[in-house]
Amino acid sequence: MPSSLPVMFIFIFTTACMRLATSEYYSFPPNFILGASTSSYQIEGAWNISDKAESIWDRFVHDNSGRIANNETGDIACDSYHKYKEDVAILKELGFDSYRFSVSWSRILPEGFAHYVSQDGLNYYNKLLDELLANNIKPLVTIYHWDHPQLIEDLGGWRNDRMVEWFADYARIVFRELGPKIKYFVTINEPSILATSGYGNGTKAPGIQDSGRGEYLATHNMLKAHARAYHIYQNEFKSTQNAVIGIVDVCQHSYTKDANDNTSSEVGFEFNCGWTFHPIFSKEGDYPKIFKEQIAEKSKLQGYPRSRLPNFSQEWITYIRGSADFLGLNHYTAHVVQPGSNAQVPSYEDDQNLVVSFRPEWKATSVSIFKIVPIGFGDTLRELAEAYNNPVIYVTENGVAPNEGLKDPTRIQFFHDYVRELLLAINRDGVNVKGYHIWSLLDSFEWTHGYGVKFGIIEVDFNDPMRKRTKKDSASWWKRVLSSRRLQPVDCD
Ligand code: NOJ
User: Fold this and answer.
1) Ligand 1 in reach of 408 Cβ (< 6 A)
2) What pTM value is reported for the model?
3) Which of 279, 311, 315, 426 has its CA 20 to 30 A from that of 364?
4) To test ligand 1's pocket by mutation, which of 100, 330, 411, 441 has the most ligand atoms within 8 angstroms of CB?
């Protein structure tokens, strides 16, 4: 009976969509913030325009030693320096509440230090902020997303403890000059990744290979710098500007390989998330106990006179503890852990005494270290709530990079399944998440992967001098979610 087929089809199709949409848990709470995320070096381009100085990423990519796929650079990237109005128009059209972007230290302070502020640099960010506010989009501004001036790196960068004050001076300029337009600040993006890859194994800028020492020193100084910026804001700007300030790091749940293993999951959590979150969000402050003990023990066995992990004085422990209004979570995958080590000695990886792997059934993505594990997102959120007394959490990045072009069912399915976990964690389990940002608005410069790994819901044509932007199917899916403020089925178009 061919004539009844379309009717049947519509019926099945509609009920599937309605079933998903009616679950009591699948609506966003009132005032929940849904946004999209980017970072300065990955999208702006205009790397040497006006008085902008060379950043560590400019140096790293121009150094041409084959460290970036196809020797690509962020010289032009998405050209958002010139095309920011188009980016804001896309955010507006899709209905996002918020835009997370970062400001470039080298654009604002071309000489690294606060004695000289670039008017052109400030103009760019003021124009971007004005455009966002005119369109009713909340700016969530990351003060530092991995791209400090090379001049500062030449003085030791994050391995020099003077960096704490240099960063604080820079943050103060950002607060003073741009702060009146901003209600959400992130101080530093992913200290742990910048530390391990920039100062440990050297795979990212500034490319320092000082494994087992450099990453701890860098993070130590970043935690202090974060706290300095936080306190500066509280003392000098909070009463007039009244923004909230947090720090962002990547964090994922570690499942044990062996069901009888009672310790590895906790060790995984403390090394992965506790390294930077525990000093700020735990009741007692400082690095996690297991983390300190394991590094001290390994250091001793390796003949070091003291732990390779620096100590915080009691004064710093107190100063850092509680220095955030929210926990910023970047989330991409889950891990499986078991006791052992197959990593370089010494290193942060080796200090964990864990072999990290994935379950074979977890779906691969174009980035080998990220497998798709939606339940891992829910478990991470619940674990953070439990560990730190249910802090306010903003998810600042979550996304995937399938190799699919404009038709991107894997990305839609990813967002559907991850947002579902998010909503269950909030509405069913009471986790205090107040906002969620996708990574990323645009395809952009994905660090050492160059432009081949594409996280955007908007395609950018990097062969086109105009850097044409085109919506992927996932952008349409997000538009439906944003207008309905509820989870939407993957296939209702
Ligand atoms: C986290 C980083 O903050 C961001 O810069 C990067 O592009 C994404 N992870 C995806 O790898």
Assistant:
1) no
2) 0.96
3) 426
4) 330
